[in-house]
Specification:
467 residues; two-stranded antiparallel sheet
Length: 467
């Protein structure tokens, strides 16, 4: 290769790198970042709105109270996301994340609200937030307990345990409904999935990055054509609503409720840890102890604010890992737009209600793609692991097996006290704890550090003796 050919090759590689930087770096244009931010918003919106709908319904809130609960919750999702996006000396993981309601909190909050009242529910949320903030330092020291065999297994569990949620939406949203699995639902869901896959296969550049958004929008339009979309929620919603402190009443602090929510917070911290490591792997950032500490503190403040504004505890959403992976855009810029949109929608319920008209099968088709990508991201991380070592094989196999098993049959622990079921019914938490504990047993015992070297010495000695 002569000098001219080398120069042309260098210029081509530079142009390619510059183009990639334009899509993934801070040079991403404002309008592109805004559209990508809207894509992130749609990916998390249904899962987030579900929590206030479930809890408000269980506590028999009226229509006005439900409207406030949903709009205030969306507003707080934006605030919580900003806290996590922006790195400060005290808070912020600084990764492309979106925060939303912790779904693990639904059953405990329903029980607390029904038995002790709404005030006790919010007192427990505030107390749990304080716990998360104060425990961030010691919890961040668990980084050494998350080598690739643990993080890879954990992220695989997070992705694959969410697949059933996508399938439930694909079938219509409620597995107990008489029309669950209606061919019309399945057709719309698979069409949405086909649009996303088709754009990823044949589109280029920015359009390829918008595959999920395009799939959801086109799927919704097709569903509207067959009568599956109702605009009634938009007509009923108000134009403006500003969240306020203690809307449902002042907090009350009841010890068993506080303890329950602290247990829930521990489970969300474990799940957030997996999401942090997944995004760090995708973006090529090495997480330090101080990064994790800032991330946990940001979540703690978000939970405290949730209690003060009478909404919910917030944690990092794993759903959006798939969006980052599929879009290929790894900068935080689109997520700042997501946060701004969430805050705006929280103050304009009528506009926010537009996102609630997306049919469940459309969301289900998109979720299956996104959650599958999260699971495969975990498998990619497991490629770093030496599975010729049976110890690593056992750590991964047992933890993934337990996580998926509990997800399919959470009622296996129904004989246990409610406080334990909060932990045991969560496949991500069971799988995470299993991976950490098994890794300690098999790989972190003192003699394990020298056993490979000793084994090599013994092998060489045996070889010499045979010679």
């Amino acid at each position: 290769m002569d000098n001219r050919e080398k120069e042309e090759l260098f210029l081509q590689s530079t142009k390619s790198a510059t183009s990639s930087s334009s899509e993934n770096g801070q040079s991403l244009s404002t309008w592109k970042a805004a559209i990508l931010g809207f894509q992130h918003l749609l990916a998390m919106y249904s899962g987030d709105v579900l929590v206030p709908l479930l809890i408000g319904g269980a506590l028999h809130f009226n229509a006005m109270q439900m409207a406030y609960l949903i709009s205030a919750d969306i507003f707080m999702c934006g605030i919580a996301t900003l806290l996590q996006l922006k790195r400060t000396p005290l808070t912020g993981i600084g990764l492309p994340v979106v925060l939303g309601c912790a779904v693990q909190a639904v059953t405990p909050l329903e029980a607390i609200g029904s038995n002790y009242g709404v005030g006790a529910m919010y007192g427990a949320i505030i107390s749990a937030g304080i716990f998360v903030f104060l425990s961030a330092g010691w919890f961040s020291r668990i980084k050494n307990f998350f080598p690739p065999v643990v993080t890879g297994s954990l992220i695989t569990i997070i992705g694959f345990t969410l697949i059933p949620v996508g399938f439930q939406d694909l079938g219509g949203g409620s597995a107990t409904a008489k029309n669950f699995g209606d061919p019309k639902f399945l057709l719309i869901g698979f069409l949405t999935m086909a649009i996303i896959l088709g754009l990823n296969a044949f589109a280029k550049g920015f359009m390829k990055s918008l595959a999920i958004l395009a799939g959801i929008l086109i799927g919704t339009l097709i569903a509207g054509g067959v009568g599956m979309v109702s605009l009634a929620p938009v007509a009923q919603a108000s134009w403006f609503h500003l969240p306020q402190f203690f809307y449902f009443g002042t907090p009350k602090f009841e010890w068993s409720s506080i303890l329950t929510m602290i247990l829930v917070s521990l489970t969300t911290m474990v799940e957030s840890t997996g999401v942090f490591f997944a995004l760090a792997d995708i973006t090529g950032k090495k997480l330090e102890e101080k990064d994790l500490k800032r991330g946990y503190r940001a979540e703690g403040i978000a939970v405290i604010l949730g209690g003060l504004f009478n909404t919910f505890p917030y944690s990092t959403f794993s759903e959006n890992v798939g969006v980052v992976q599929l879009s290929g855009v790894k900068t935080r810029k689109p997520l700042y737009f997501s946060a701004a949109f969430l805050i705006l929608l929280g103050m304009l319920p009528k506009i926010g209600a537009l996102a609630t008209v997306i049919p469940d099968p459309v969301l289900g088709g998109a979720m299956i793609v996104m959650f599958g990508m999260v699971g495969v991201q975990g498998i990619r991380m497991l490629q770093q692991v030496d599975f010729k070592d049976n110890n690593n094989l056992l750590v991964s196999a047992i933890s993934i097996g337990l996580g998926l098993g509990v997800t399919v049959y959470p009622q296996i622990f129904q004989a246990f006290p409610q406080s334990l079921q909060i932990i045991l019914n969560n496949g991500v938490v069971i799988g995470s704890f299993s991976a950490v504990i098994l890794n300690i047993i098999f790989n972190m015992r003192p003699h394990r550090a020298i056993s490979p070297a000793q084994a090599q010495v013994n092998s060489n000695a045996q070889s010499q003796n045979r010679n």
